[in-house]
Design goal:
Elements (H helix, E strand, L loop, with lengths): L1 E7 L2 E6 L10 E11 L1 H9 L15 E2 L4 E8 L10 E4 L2 E2 L5 H4 L10 E3 L2 E2 L6 E5 L3 E3 L6 H4 L2 H14 L6 E5 L3 H12 L4 E5 L3 H9 L4 E3 L1 H12 L4 E6 L4 H10 E9 L11 H7 L2 E4 L8 H10 L9 E6 L3 H11 L6 E5 L9 H7 L1
Parallel strand pairs: 8-9, 12-13, 12-15, 13-14, 15-16, 16-17, 18-19
Antiparallel strand pairs: 1-2, 1-4, 3-5, 3-10, 3-19, 5-6, 6-11, 7-8
Amino acid sequence: MRAARMYGRRDLRVVDLPELGSPPPGWVRLRVEACGICGTDLEVYLNAPRSDEPPLSAADGPLTMGHEPAGVVVETGPDVDLQVGQRVAVEGHLFCDTCFWCRRGDYALCATLRSTGQGADGGLAEEMLVPARICLPYADTLAPEHAALAEPTSVACRAVRRARLEPGSTVVVVGGGSIGLLLSQVARLRGAGQVVVVEPVKRRRELATCLGADLAVAPEDAGQALADLTEGVGADVAFEAGGRPETVRRALEWTRKGGRTVLLGVTNGTLELDLLSFLLSEKELVASLSHTYDVDFPEAVRLLETGQVQVEPLISDRISLDQVVTHGFEALLAEPDAHLKVVVLPNGPVEPARAADLEATG
């Protein structure tokens, strides 16, 4: 079996590995049909420690990357309801189910949380082992490349849920990358009256309007555009999906008094906050981390299955596993504006799955 393994900073290698073997109780073995690359993967690629240091290390050394997989069940362990031949999207969180946060249903806050591709082997491989409970079957009418985007779609679903969006709200999405463009669609579906996307790249602004945004503007024009749109009031909800301290500051600035700013862009920077101004404006600052397997992820899959959220326009590149470094990670670093969502096809172009074929080869 071949997999993309992380050995250290900017040291990702496609290597041959022993066959995975049969899954343990409650787990399944998947043939991976598609796996997306996201900004978090890039952060790991650029900043990973040596393969024997946490959080990169897997139980047996270097880690197989990839936390946005979709695949076909080729073998099940005991006590599994999934069937061989079923296509599934993988939510990715390996949570304990017993800590304080898991008992509350806050699985993304689990005290011992790991994820596929982040602390445990992931989906940039021909096959993977994964708990059945985080595998959600999806309709055969949905392309596997689209199913792989269930994970980022569920990030958007959770953020909109945490925003407590009211019908008719004016929403601004700061950052028109894949998460921002998914956010704009989910917010509209959840009742937003006006959706504004702020994005410096012209092609992404054009894509935002094609996907239903009322307005897509460059950052330097956003303040005046929002003032004109809201008669100087500001946005009811601002989603920060740019992942930089400056975009966080702007999102707070463009939120109206009594409004809500939701942070989901990943950044290690700091934010200087004028506490008196923040108090007097009664704004809310809410963080939204990842997703849950039982609420956000099923919603995301349903939105993709029904075509209510469009993801094909977000896929800029489909590449093979052999191209994952040159046409995936390095391409995203060299020309970030030219690549939106890169999807890896570890087993080549996807063909319709048939259970009989899988039983014969699995």
